[in-house]
């Protein structure tokens, strides 16, 4: 079911799917500008850590047997009473080839300006089909895959007749989603508040360990600072707005992309979240072995990170992400600022102090 914040339509999906893949996505950006509401769309970043997935089944001479490998293999298993060996015996000498798709994911953004979350994020798959191996091994001396492995396309690659990878056709675009981030954050924040309010009112029995006396209290009463906790995703954009990054005119949607999640648990509680993904292209090393550094050297390394990224206070948001900058390093900077050893802009100090009081991250 399409979510309230997902602006994907059949028309938009068709526009994306029928646009040829070109250098720097020039044709796709032109299509966004001339055929959609996202006239200001800009390319942000590409993620290419995704594995191949099975696509089609071909004969040895390239004729299509099945357009959907998984549907075909399910039908084969059903026709052979679920027996992998029976499926293998039926097709092992046919020379069928398995085509696969190598995907990369491109992010584009249509920034509407104003609030930092006022943008549409467009995620577009680029998929290249290729073939490099036969579907079934010619013999079973090393064993056969189980049914789940067969469905996933893992049919014993080391044992299958292989050839050089051969691409099939040109790469193609496919729309993954088009997310109105302002709607996403509004819905997510409201859901978080509602759930936290309900949890806060949950009644518990507190027992005095010394006297054995009991009293009924709410979770809110038992948890210091309960009402200060806010949805991290909302805080990310608010911190950006209040910090040197936002005050310098930097737009979060051009510096980060957002891997969103929307899950409703069995008790009908809805959870929305995202993980920010940096969009920098320059190589930036993780800050390691900083425990032995003095405060000035540590802060200098954080400032160097800002310079490499090209924006002020970038290190704070990388610290929220947690891979390149660690929370302990952020704590040391705050302590140094409070001791007067380094000078932070007041607005950045306040952002860092609020984070220290109620930490969050991704």
Question: How would you characterize this protein structure?
Answer:
The protein is an alpha+beta fold and 362 residues long. It has 2 domains: 10-179, no CATH class; 224-357, no CATH class. It has helices at 10-17, 26-35, 69-79, 84-91, 147-152, 181-200, 219-222, 232-242, 244-247, 252-255, 295-309, 314-321, 327-338, 346-357, and strands spanning 42-47, 53-58, 64-66, 97-111, 119-134, 162-180, 203-207, 214-218, 256-264, 270-278. The strands form 3 sheets. Strands 1, 2, 3, 4, 5 and 6 form a 6-stranded antiparallel sheet that branches. The protein has a two-stranded antiparallel sheet with strand order 7-8. Strands 9-10 form a two-stranded antiparallel ribbon. β7 (203-207) and β8 form a beta hairpin. α13 packs across α14 (346-357). The longest helix is centred in the middle third of the chain and has 20 residues, at 181-200. It is globular and about 75 Å long. It starts with 9 loop residues before the first helix and ends in a 5-residue tail after the last helix. The mean pLDDT is 94.
Structural class by sheet pairing and helices: alpha+beta
**Dominant shape:** globular
Record field, number of beta strands = 10
Helix/strand order, N-terminal first = HHEEEHHEEHEHEEHHHHEEHHHH
Strand-residue fraction?
A: 25-35%
CA-based gyration radius: 27 Å
N-to-C CA distance: 26 Å
Q: Number of helix segments?
A: 14
Low-pLDDT stretches: none
Looking at the chains present, what oligomeric state does this protein adopt? single chain
- Major sheet details: 6 strands, antiparallel
Share in helix? 25-40%
Task: Kindly give the count of domains.
Answer: 2
Instruction: Return the average pLDDT rounded to an integer.
Output: 94
């Amino acid at each position: 079911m399409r979510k309230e914040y997902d602006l994907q339509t059949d028309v938009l999906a068709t526009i994306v799917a029928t646009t040829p893949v070109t250098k720097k996505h020039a044709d796709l950006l032109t299509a966004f500008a001339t055929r959609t509401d996202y006239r200001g769309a800009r390319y942000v970043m590409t993620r290419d850590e995704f594995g191949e997935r099975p696509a089609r089944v071909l004969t040895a001479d390239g004729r299509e047997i099945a357009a959907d490998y998984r549907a075909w293999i399910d039908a084969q298993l059903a026709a052979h009473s679920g027996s992998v060996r029976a499926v293998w015996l039926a097709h092992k000498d046919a020379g069928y080839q398995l085509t696969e798709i190598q995907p990369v994911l491109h992010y584009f953004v249509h920034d509407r300006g104003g609030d930092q979350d006022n943008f549409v994020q467009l995620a577009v798959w680029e998929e290249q089909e290729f073939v490099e191996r036969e579907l079934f091994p010619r013999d079973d001396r090393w064993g056969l895959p189980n049914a789940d492995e067969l469905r996933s396309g893992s049919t014993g690659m080391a044992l299958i007749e292989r050839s050089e990878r051969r691409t099939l056709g040109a790469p193609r675009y496919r729309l993954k989603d088009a997310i109105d981030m302002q709607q996403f954050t509004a819905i997510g924040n409201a859901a978080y508040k509602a759930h936290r309010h309900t949890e806060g009112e949950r009644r518990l029995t507190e027992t005095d360990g010394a006297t054995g006396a009991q009293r009924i209290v709410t979770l809110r009463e038992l948890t210091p600072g309960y009402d200060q906790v806010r949805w991290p995703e909302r805080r990310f954009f608010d911190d950006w707005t209040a910090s040197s990054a936002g005050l310098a005119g930097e737009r979060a949607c051009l510096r980060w992309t957002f891997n969103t999640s929307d899950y409703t648990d069995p008790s009908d509680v809805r959870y929305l979240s995202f993980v920010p993904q940096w969009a920098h292209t320059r190589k930036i090393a993780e800050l390691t072995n900083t425990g032995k550094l003095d405060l000035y050297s540590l802060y200098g390394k954080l400032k160097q990170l800002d310079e490499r990224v090209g924006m002020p206070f970038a290190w704070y948001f990388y610290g929220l992400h947690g891979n390149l900058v660690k929370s302990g390093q952020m704590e040391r900077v705050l302590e140094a600022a409070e001791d007067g050893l380094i000078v932070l802009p007041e607005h950045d100090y306040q952002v860092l102090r609020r984070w220290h009081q109620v930490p969050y991250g991704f």
